[in-house]
Amino acid sequence: MLDVLVIGGGPAGSTAATLLARKGFSVRLLERDKFPRFQIGESLLPYNNDLFDRLGVSDELKRGEYFPKYGAHFVTGDGRTEFTFRFDRILPPEHQRSFQVRRSEFDHLLLRNAAASGVDVREETPVTSVRLENESCFVRVASGEEIEARFVIDGSGHASLLGSRTGKKSDIASLKKIAVFAHYRGVEKPKGRDAGNTTIVVIRDGWFWLIPVTGELMSVGLVVDRDHFVNCGLSAEELLERSIAATPFVAERMKSAGRVTQVYSRKDFSYRVRDLVGKRFALIGDAAGFLDPIFSTGVYMAMKSADIAADAVEARLRKGSMRGLERYERDMTRALGRYFHFISNFYRREFLEVFLQPSNRFGLLHAIVRILAGNVFGAAGDRLKLALFFVLVRIQKRRPVIARPIRWEALPRAASL
Ligand SMILES: Cc1cc2nc3c(=O)[nH]c(=O)nc-3n(C[C@H](O)[C@H](O)[C@H](O)COP(=O)(O)OP(=O)(O)OC[C@H]3O[C@@H](n4cnc5c(N)ncnc54)[C@H](O)[C@@H]3O)c2cc1C
């Protein structure tokens, strides 16, 4: 019998599998697709760097074609209000830089690293069902084979195989969105270090991302309410291209750009899952829940959850203890909750006014940069500062005395017929 079976070879699954194999367990990873495969989610966070070091992939990330990212630039669609949150000016050296990646390559790097660490990696092996028993679990794959393991980790991403089966996965009504996106060449970038920043462009009813995945390629995406897409009478491609043209800041950057991929879309990507752990299972990464991509938290949350869960699974298998798994569930739920607070507020005018014109009184700017960089698991010291930030947002809602009002009504909107 195997010790651990991991479902899914994305960043969550390959991280958990690698760490557990290195702890001496027999680990098999089952991945539905053949890598490299396309995936969205190209902008990483600096707090992931510690894990890249431990996994032994930092040198390859620095050597590769991956674009260094030193900050995140937020700007309104008319270009009038903007701010760059700079990791390299505010964070300690180990967190000053992150990476923009082509996910097909990045995920493949992590999966190869898992295999080199002793994981039995099986690609093109979709899991069709999981049966949890008292002493072990049985995982069935598409060929009909049933595999027994002492513990199963669900890293199946958005599919959340176990979460969906147990009915514990639910959509977040306030975040019913759709993203339409593609890669372009010839998009203008700022000079110097700022060239690698993620740029988030806020429009009245949504936002764009501009992520330089390589020196040449720019990932450009638009996120709007799903209802807008349903009612706008445009195809995904028309919605993306017409909204680009209607948004002065983006149109200016893209005046000489050409699209080099099809336009992809993803909808209803925000959901929560209850019951992340049991005696024989743990859900990690997107399988444990995913929120709106506005702060590029997905890959970091996937890998960090895998890291914490791997320690908890070790304690479970060696000592029979559930404490680590229960702590993992608590920590993961709390971290997702912290981001949820930021994300749900991001769609409010008063939040944006304060966020885009931040003050560093009481260390508020530094606390925001840390949370944007991924400091959500051990952020006790910043909790008070962030609470104060939200007090300022509430004051701004009543009277705009904290920050200059944005000319909201004049901001561009997503295109429609
Ligand atoms: C529009 C959008 C933009 C985003 N932008 C960003 C960003 O800029 N930065 C960021 O960090 N994150 C971003 N994300 C989130 C990011 O894509 C995910 O959080 C991340 O990929 C999660 O990793 P994971 O390993 O949990 O899941 P995945 O990467 O989805 O990997 C899951 C794997 O499981 C496999 N699988 C699924 N079902 C089965 C099965 N039955 N059997 C076997 N294998 C299976 C899949 O083939 C897949 O390879 C974005 C998400 C969206 C929707």
Overall average pLDDT? 94
Could you tell me the strand content as a percent range? 15-25%
Any idea how many domains? 3
Ions, cofactors and other bound molecules: flavin-adenine dinucleotide
Specify the CATH architecture of the largest domain: 3-Layer(bba) Sandwich
What's the shape?
Answer: globular
Structural class: alpha+beta
Task: Measure the end-to-end span.
Answer: 59 Å
Largest sheet: 8 strands, mixed
CATH superfamily descriptor of the largest domain: FAD/NAD(P)-binding domain
Helix count?
A: 14
Q: Under CATH, the topology of the largest domain is which?
A: FAD/NAD(P)-binding domain
Report the CATH C-level class of the largest domain.
Alpha Beta
User: Which value, in Å, is the CA radius of gyration?
Assistant: 21 Å
Low-confidence stretches are none
Helix content: 25-40%
